[in-house]
Amino acid sequence: MAGTKVIKTKDDNDNELTLVIKTPGAKQLRDAQLSSVKAFKEACDNGAYLRANLDKVMREQGLWDDNKEKELKDLNNSINDGERKLAKGKGSGLTKNQCKDLAINMKKWRSRQIDLLSSRRNLDEYTAEGQAENTRFDYLVSICVFNEDERPTFNSLEDYRERSDKPYSIIAATNLATIL
By C-alpha distance, which of 119, 132, 136 is closest to 54? Predict the structure, then answer.
């Protein structure tokens, strides 16, 4: 069936568990959006930062500064420039060994870029928008995952969140993310 994925895994008692992951329809997507809006409002009411203010907060906390900003910009420029050169191939004027060295450097640059961005991404989930997006996705997992007999695997959003660290829940969420 299109929009459906069947996954074999194990339950809490190490018994075989079949999960059926269905693509959400228009109603499920609307309901997920409503849960997202509610989560956003609650996050704002509870003092969560907006993404627009995240940079300011990170700077105030000493987690981000002009040096890191410049380093990230320079890395982005170097990576983009390297990609253009490698895309040209022989037309770039680089030898095969220079292309190899450039590719190795690009791997190092990307690794550092990921390190710099990870601190921002880690804090993003605490922003009002991040909390709303997580709620939207969690809601979709809670309503789109079924047992093989078509019964919902999770009774509610809260039930999914309580069991979200279980291996079968992680597998279900990962597969739904792939479908989406």
Answer: 119
Based on C-alpha coordinates, what's the Rg of the chain?
A: 22
Q: Tokens standing for 146? A: 């079924």
The 8 Å CB, 24+ separation contacts for 27-35 are 28/140, 28/143, 28/144, 29/140, 31/139, 31/143, 32/136, 32/137, 32/139, 32/140, 32/143, 33/136, 35/135, 35/136, 35/139, 35/157
Q: Determine the number of helices (DSSP H) and then strands (DSSP E) in the chain.
A: 7, 3
Q: Report helix, strand or coil for 60.
A: helix
Amino acid at 98: Q
At residue 145, the 3 state secondary structure works out as strand
CA 38 to each of CA 66, 131, 139, 141, 175: distance values in angstroms, whole numbers, following the listed order: 35, 10, 12, 17, 25
The 10s digit of each residue's pLDDT in 63-103 is: 889 999 999 999 999 999 999 988 887 677 888 898 899 99
pLDDT tens digits, residue range 5-41?
A: 999 998 888 889 999 999 999 999 999 999 999 999 9
